[in-house]
Amino acid sequence: MPGTESAREIMACAAERTVRFEQQTGEKPCLATVLVGDDPASATYVRMKRNRCAKLGIESRHVPLPASTTTEALVAAITELADDPAVHGILLQHPVPGHIDERAAFDAIPVGKDVDGVGSSSFAAMAFGRDGFASCTPAGIMRLLDAYGVDPSGKHAVVIGRSPILGKPMAMLLLARDATVTVCHSKTGDLPSIVRTADIVVAAVGKPEFVRGEWLKPGAVVVDAGYNEGNVGDVAFDEAGTRAQLLTPVPGGVGPMTIALLMEQTVEAAFRQAGLP
């Protein structure tokens, strides 16, 4: 279940809307990326997102901050971007150094510019079906399921992981589509038995090849949202491939969809802020 083709279609549409926005306003949609510290993986992710912006005609503004940045200084930098009408979307690259209150920083991003869907208000809007932006990876997974004709309604979905930017919003989006959702985590007892009951499995635990093939119900749809060193996901791919009906690869599965949704939501934010349909 690769995500590259679906992501390409989403980004082609975003590129067309970017042209329309510039024609109507004389400006380009703008995504501001904030990176605290010099973690190589985080720097790579930010560079990928900025390169994708450039290909789609979206302006990008990068704000690098030293690892010694305090929570207060980070919130101040985000607030400055929030107050700038030329900036339509703000992305704070996760994770930040441990001494920073990441939740306070995420929540400093106003809902209308939270194109990565990481703030508490964005989560609430998504959970209650209100107007806001969903967390990009879970939203990308839902679009990928749609692309492959997987209807969650009436299905049992097991989400492994409860992070506030992946596991929890993933559960809410599946619930909104009438799935029966079980959220599992590090303290869940007899996890393999629970996974064996799942029609849809979303692995977002951050441990390489954690989900084994023998855990899966034959014919299950398996979404690997993990990415670990060495291009390895959270699912033992070869084992799972013998039992799953559909299985996302790592890389090339969920990752392209995450970036595509970020681009789409940035362009949508620009239209909303300009008061354009």
From TrEMBL:
<keyword id="KW-0554">One-carbon metabolism</keyword>
<keyword id="KW-0511">Multifunctional enzyme</keyword>
<feature type="binding site">
    <location>
        <begin position="161"/>
        <end position="163"/>
    </location>
    <ligand>
        <name>NADP(+)</name>
    </ligand>
</feature>
<dbReference type="InterPro" id="IPR000672">
    <property type="entry name" value="THF_DH/CycHdrlase"/>
</dbReference>
<keyword id="KW-0368">Histidine biosynthesis</keyword>
<dbReference type="GO" id="GO:0006164">
    <property type="term" value="P:purine nucleotide biosynthetic process"/>
</dbReference>
<comment type="subunit">
    <text>Homodimer.</text>
</comment>
<protein>
    <recommendedName>
        <fullName>Bifunctional protein FolD</fullName>
        <ecNumber>1.5.1.5</ecNumber>
        <ecNumber>3.5.4.9</ecNumber>
    </recommendedName>
</protein>
<dbReference type="GO" id="GO:0004477">
    <property type="term" value="F:methenyltetrahydrofolate cyclohydrolase activity"/>
</dbReference>
<feature type="domain" description="Tetrahydrofolate dehydrogenase/cyclohydrolase NAD(P)-binding">
    <location>
        <begin position="135"/>
        <end position="273"/>
    </location>
</feature>
<keyword id="KW-0028">Amino-acid biosynthesis</keyword>
<dbReference type="GO" id="GO:0009086">
    <property type="term" value="P:methionine biosynthetic process"/>
</dbReference>
<dbReference type="InterPro" id="IPR020867">
    <property type="entry name" value="THF_DH/CycHdrlase_CS"/>
</dbReference>
<dbReference type="GO" id="GO:0000105">
    <property type="term" value="P:L-histidine biosynthetic process"/>
</dbReference>
<dbReference type="GO" id="GO:0004488">
    <property type="term" value="F:methylenetetrahydrofolate dehydrogenase (NADP+) activity"/>
</dbReference>
<dbReference type="InterPro" id="IPR020631">
    <property type="entry name" value="THF_DH/CycHdrlase_NAD-bd_dom"/>
</dbReference>
<comment type="similarity">
    <text>Belongs to the tetrahydrofolate dehydrogenase/cyclohydrolase family.</text>
</comment>
<dbReference type="GO" id="GO:0035999">
    <property type="term" value="P:tetrahydrofolate interconversion"/>
</dbReference>
<keyword id="KW-0378">Hydrolase</keyword>
<keyword id="KW-0560">Oxidoreductase</keyword>
<dbReference type="InterPro" id="IPR046346">
    <property type="entry name" value="Aminoacid_DH-like_N_sf"/>
</dbReference>
<dbReference type="InterPro" id="IPR036291">
    <property type="entry name" value="NAD(P)-bd_dom_sf"/>
</dbReference>
<dbReference type="GO" id="GO:0005829">
    <property type="term" value="C:cytosol"/>
</dbReference>
<dbReference type="Pfam" id="PF02882">
    <property type="entry name" value="THF_DHG_CYH_C"/>
</dbReference>
<dbReference type="Pfam" id="PF00763">
    <property type="entry name" value="THF_DHG_CYH"/>
</dbReference>
<keyword id="KW-0486">Methionine biosynthesis</keyword>
<keyword id="KW-0521">NADP</keyword>
<comment type="function">
    <text>Catalyzes the oxidation of 5,10-methylenetetrahydrofolate to 5,10-methenyltetrahydrofolate and then the hydrolysis of 5,10-methenyltetrahydrofolate to 10-formyltetrahydrofolate.</text>
</comment>
<keyword id="KW-0658">Purine biosynthesis</keyword>
<feature type="domain" description="Tetrahydrofolate dehydrogenase/cyclohydrolase catalytic">
    <location>
        <begin position="3"/>
        <end position="116"/>
    </location>
</feature>
<dbReference type="InterPro" id="IPR020630">
    <property type="entry name" value="THF_DH/CycHdrlase_cat_dom"/>
</dbReference>
<comment type="pathway">
    <text>One-carbon metabolism; tetrahydrofolate interconversion.</text>
</comment>
